[in-house]
Amino acid sequence: MNRIERKFKELKRKRQKAFVVFLTCGYPDLRTTKILIKELYRAGVDIIELGIPFSDPLADGKLIQESSAYALKKGIDIFKVFKLASETRRITSIPLCLLTYYNPIICFGLERFMRMSRDSGVDGLIIPDLPPEESKDILKIAKSYGISVIFFISPTTSGERLKLICNLSRGFIYYVSLTGVTGPREKLPVDLIDNLKKIKKITSKPVCVGFGISRPDQIKRLYKIVDGVIVGSAIIKKIKDNLGKPDLIKKVVDFVLWLRGNKISYV
After folding, report:
1. Is 60 part of the annotated catalytic residue set?
2. DSSP for residue 262
């Protein structure tokens, strides 16, 4: 059992739900990312999803694409991400997930990537462009290093594939709230709650919802059904809006506190 699994067991015992934050590693710089992780942990964030900058992030909307391009121009690479993860692990026990695409992992070397993930204190791996049907090798190696591979379910996932993903995913299941790419939305899809209820009927694994979440009322509504929410683009936008300002960290943390409110218990 790694830190992700322990976190969800702890939250369930406390009758609480997870708040997961996505950060693009190195946006706007590595020092800021490191401080943000520490301060967000202190603010009650349960899991950090750390994006490895990539030149072709297909699942990401404009905000995260821009942050990724910005970090790449600063020279952020996989080695620097692992170094940051190691430094983070020395100052906090927060579960860390890496989000990256399949191409960088293959170029880096699959087993090498998993070994360095483990050695850096990484707990989970999210690969948006990895089909579960083609994940046998990566799952085998990830398991040997204690890394949870987290798969996506979308509104268009078929019933048969849904069962496959629920079976394969470790740590938690990532439900994509809408078709399309990441980005803040004022309104969530009308069929979202019904879709989530169907998933919860066929799996006991934690289900977290991401894509489009940007308001406290959305989070409160989702917490009634799922085990956690994931907020990414709204956080990246808050960072972007405060680039170069001395109170960037405070603005981001205050925004997260506003979003999550108090820990919400099961209804």
Report:
1. yes
2. S
Cα–Cα distance, 9 to 177 (Å, whole number): 24
pTM, 2 dp: 0.91
* pLDDT at residue 26 tops 50: yes
Q: Which residues are paired to 152 by β-bridges?
A: 174
Instruction: Spot the catalytic one: 46, 49, 123, 227.
Output: 49
Q: What DSSP assignment string belongs to 172-231? A: -EEEE-SSS-----SS--TTHHHHHHHHHHH--S-EEEESS---HHHHHHHHTTSSEEEE
225's CB contacts (< 8 A; 6+ apart) are 193, 196, 197, 200
Query: Residue type at 203?
Result: T
Instruction: Given the residues 46, 60, 123, 227, select the one marked as catalytic.
Output: 60
CATH of domain 3-258: 3.20.20.70
Q: Within 13 Å and on the Cβ side, how many CA atoms surround 250?
A: 4
Half-sphere exposure of 142 (CA within 13 A, CB side): 23
- At 119, the amino acid letter reads D
* Per-residue pLDDT reduced to its tens digit, 178-187: 654 444 455 6
Is 241 a known active-site residue?
no
Query: What is the Cα–Cα distance from 158 to 170, expressed in whole angstroms?
Result: 20
